[in-house]
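Researcher: I'm preparing a figure for a lab meeting and need a structural model of a single chain. I don't have an experimental structure, so a prediction will have to do for now. The sequence is pasted below. Please return the structure as tokens so I can convert it later.
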Amino acid sequence: MNHKVTRIIEQEICDRYAKKLRQPMFLAVGYFKDYDAISYSRNLNIEIKFEAKARQTHNFAFEVSYRGKPSGLASTRAKKWVHVVPLDERRMNCYEFDVETLRKRLRDVPSLWAGDRKASEIKLLPFLEATRMRTDQFEINIDWTLYQPYWK
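Model: Understood. Here is the structure written out token by token.
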């Protein structure tokens, strides 16, 4: 996914949390492995991941290592995990999970290898089970025309 598109989606999610919490949310700038966003009070930090194939595979994929090093769910310091599943070009379903609950549930799930050169170790969680485990679910709707002036 295009980095600019990713950042816009992350910002939309942060805006949603800022309204919900009634305090600013900040996105990490550049590479920061601990989490993607944090609240002004530091009471909430979130990891945001995109799952383009969840609707086709009926699974959520959680990366736990990359090239033998902990990553994704295994390395994040976030309290909440937000999995973004596109519905169409504008609308996305967002599923919020408690990170520790996810780690416990996936601990005994067999690993699969995926991605470029099978370098990512992932664990799959069936979509229906994931929807039962979620702590929140919301939809974001992005009007891409608002961002076109920035892509010249």
